[in-house]
Fold this sequence. Notes:
Helix content is about 100%, strand content about 0%. It is mostly helical. It is rod-shaped and about 140 Å long. It starts with a helix and ends with a helix.
Amino acid sequence: MDQNIISIIAVVGTLSGIALGWLGKVRSVQQDTVADVSKDAALQADMAYLKRGIDDLRVEIKVQGQHYNELSEKVIRLDESLKSVYKRVDKLEVRQ
């Protein structure tokens, strides 16, 4: 009878050890999953922030390009006006 009790206690101890080990592993896997999800969410938020920044830079570059084109046109018109002014000055110098 004593041997049966010892055998039962050994089997119960073994089974409880297996169950506790399994529960510990499941808990560890869940914690790892939560940590991975948190890291992924942070990375996605950072990527979204970078994408918005790049989009803002693209818009800014486009606007700067438009300003550059406008200034180029103004410089061309000013150059033409200066040529006209130089011709008038030359004519005035010749008359005097």
